[in-house]
Amino acid sequence: RAKETASNAVCFYDPSMDRAVRERNVLAMDMRAGLRRGEFQLHYQRQNDTFTGAVVGFEALLRWNHPDRGSVRPAEFIPIAERSGFIVELGEWVLREACREAASWRNPLSIAVNIATQQLADPRFPGLVQEILQESGLDPARLELEITETGIIADHQRALQTIRHLKSLGVRIAMDDYGTGYSSLSMLLAFPFDKIKIDRQFVDGVATSAQSAAIVRSTLILASSLEIPVLAEGVETDAHVNFLREEGCVQLQGFFFGQPVPRAEIETIVNSIPDHPPGRKKVA
Ligand code: C2E
Ligand code: MG
Ligand code: MG
Ligand code: MG
């Protein structure tokens, strides 16, 4: 409340701030209407096994096709949705949509969904995940929830409880944007992650920056001693692939393999994978 008053007060003195605040409020309102009007859409980006090259899963990435503004990037609207609290509702839509989509695939590939801090902090979240798994019929083992350091730093104990609850449902938890926070390393030791996603800013530098290469290398060593698989995001070049392969990073995701694409385009990829891995339940 105090914060709100403060930012309103600023409006009277700073017209540019006023514009920014108004702009944000307009977008926040547009977003609610946009969700009802079906303007949001998920795109999917493939994740590949480093050594076999096989597609192992997809990450769902949110897109907003605004009637006037065209395609609005998540970097522009996710922070606004977080500030207004609308992210909880929007995130629920994302989870439902992604699970329904993955459940329709011929092949039991995994589906990774980004979870915002406020979703994770919502006490109803594990129950919601369970409900969505049931209604979609998705095998929980195929669902991977991507959380970031900010999602767990505020209340360690509670986050740990939530993560344990989620894992008891059979879903996997990935730490996203690894290396960008202040205490990524201690997070790794304190929380039972099933996967680490190295942020693309470090991947980008592996061939050119000794510092990035050192961060990626040491992350891979630590993760391997903890027996946590690592995925590198933002893989764009041969040099990236070669470095990551030599250092033993098991999964790769990035423009080198494919851009995030709409659902219609991944269907071909999913259906072109010939066999179901042995011992896995066939998904209708
Ligand atoms: P993220 O979860 O780290 O997702 C990876 C981002 O990197 C995506 O950006 C993806 O398009 C981009 N990317 C993938 N490969 C490459 C590459 O080779 N090079 C470069 N330069 N970029 C690459 P996008 O889709 O714009 O999403 C940005 C961020 O917005 C995501 O980062 C995530 O934090 C957030 N976001 C996206 N969808 C959702 C969602 O449904 N819920 C929530 N809470 N956040 C989301
Ligand atoms: Mg992610
Ligand atoms: Mg990421
Ligand atoms: Mg990232």
Main attributes?
single chain, 284 residues, alpha/beta, 13 helices, 10 strands, globular, disordered N terminus, disordered C terminus, binds ligand C2E, binds magnesium ion
Q: Kindly name the structural category.
A: alpha/beta
The outline comes out as globular
The low-pLDDT segments are 1-5, 278-284
Helix content: 40-55%
Order of helices and strands: HHEEEHHEHHEHHEHEHHEHEEH
Radius of gyration: 20 Å
Rounded to the nearest angstrom, the distance between the terminal CA atoms is: 50 Å
How large a portion of the residues is in β-strands, by DSSP E?
Answer: 15-25%
Largest sheet entry: 8 strands, mixed, barrel
Q: Major sheet: order of its strands?
A: 1-2-4-5-6-7-8-9
Ligand types = ligand C2E, magnesium ion
Task: Please tell me the overall pLDDT.
Answer: 90
> If helices are DSSP runs of H or I spanning 4 or more residues, what is the number of helices?
13
How many strand segments? 10
Reconstruct the topology from this structure.
Elements: H1 2-11, H2 15-36, E1 40-49, E2 55-66, E3 70-72, H3 74-84, H4 87-103, E4 110-114, H5 117-121, H6 125-136, E5 143-147, H7 150-153, H8 156-168, E6 172-178, H9 184-190, E7 195-198, H10 200-205, H11 210-225, E8 230-232, H12 238-246, E9 251-252, E10 261-262, H13 263-272
Parallel strand pairs: 2-4, 4-5, 5-6, 6-7, 7-8, 8-9
Antiparallel strand pairs: 1-2, 1-9, 1-10, 2-3
Helix pairs in contact: 1-2, 2-3, 4-6
The structure holds ligand C2E and magnesium ion (MG) (3 copies).
Domain EAL: 24-274
Protein name: Bifunctional diguanylate cyclase/phosphodiesterase
